[in-house]
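Bug report (template v2)

What were you trying to do?
Predict the complex of my protein with adenosine monophosphate.

What happened?
Run completed; filing so the output is reviewed.

Input:
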Amino acid sequence: MSFASLGLSEALLRAIDEAGYATPTPIQLKAIPAVLSDKDVMAAAQTGTGKTAGFVLPLLQRLAGGPKVKANHIRALVLTPTRELAVQVEQSVATYGKHLALKSGVVYGGVKINPQMMKLRGGVDVLVATPGRLLDLFNHNAVQFAQVETLVLDEADRMLDMGFINDIRKILALLPPRRQNLLFSATFSSDIRKLTEGLLRNPVLIEVSPRNTAAKSVKQWVYEVDKGKKPALLSYLVRNKGWEQVLVFVRTRNGADSLAGRLGNDGITTAVIHGDKSQGERARALADFKAGTVRVLVATDIAARGLDISELPHVINFDLPKVPEDYIHRIGRTGRAGSTGEGISLVSADEVQLLAAIETLISQTLVREVVHGFIPNHNVPLTRQLKVRPKKPKKPKPVQEQGQVRKTDGEPKNSGHKPSRGGKS
Ligand code: AMP
């Protein structure tokens, strides 16, 4: 099945061709005709399935034939949980819509509101927004919703996890009642179902399995947090999420010991494996962890190598590894053989270069979250705007391709981005 047979216009087909896509992904095959036919859609799809193009392409096609957008108005609203995702989605809108005369924009919190107000002045056809900032803009009279034809909730489950339900409900109340609604979510919890009840009219239900097996078995994301708050956040997550068997990677022996001490003080049974531990101590720690008498095993990369532990439910990167390939080894401990696992990284602003290197290696931008009570004072800059710092070439100068990942040697330097205080959205 080709994109052309899905009924997409020539301008969109040309952009798809230029993006290098030969055939639609399973979710695109289902979502594109549904959206084109004016149906509401409820889709269970994770990142990596091609879901963004699945809603952006038909959305653009429908908007292209419609009325001109008025000043300060918008015609389609895409809500996302994070600024990172908002930026990515707007980039997709710009890429797929480059041969159409439609305007798009993106707004999110943590940055000055004025430039966003200016951008909205002339009206935009597609606005991608995080919920809190959108409401701020509405309260400044910078955006009006009377022309909204389509609403998209992208990664709805994460929006609820991040506490945006009240903001979403406020926004829904402001939108015209006659509109198309598209909801994308990796999971369908009872909270999501409750939200969809009043929102979707006879939705087309779409479910597809993720495109690559890594995405199927390991859910990966990042918690942004200030460095000094990491031990408290980990302790909070283990206790509040009810994690029972957690492998935590820490970069140094001292770091491993002090983290284990902290977790122990909080009443979490913890063992440590690192280079200073004897063979007997390591074997005992591992046996206790496997038997479930120890809830958290804190390990350094080197000590963990060769350990017979896999298929764990949760692997945590307390520190990001200096060598990006170690990220893959660490995450490989979870979610094997069909079972789902979670690979979670606690990332502080000074680790942004390491994060960028990992994301380049895995060809994936990791979704970011913050936890209420642990919102960082120092934002982790967007990795898309960073280049991975190349290793200084030794003589004779090797020819290096741009964008290639190299091992970083030394502590990550400050990226030069001024840390700023930002809200959740
Ligand atoms: P998403 O799940 O929307 O985050 O998309 C995941 C990646 O798949 C993005 O990098 C897209 O550029 C890419 N992609 C989307 N649709 C296709 C397609 N039909 N063929 C190849 N790559 C695609």
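What did the reviewer find?
The pocket of adenosine monophosphate is lined by residues 21, 24-25, 28, 47-53 (CB under 6 Å). Confidence is low (pLDDT under 50) at residues 210-216, 390-425.
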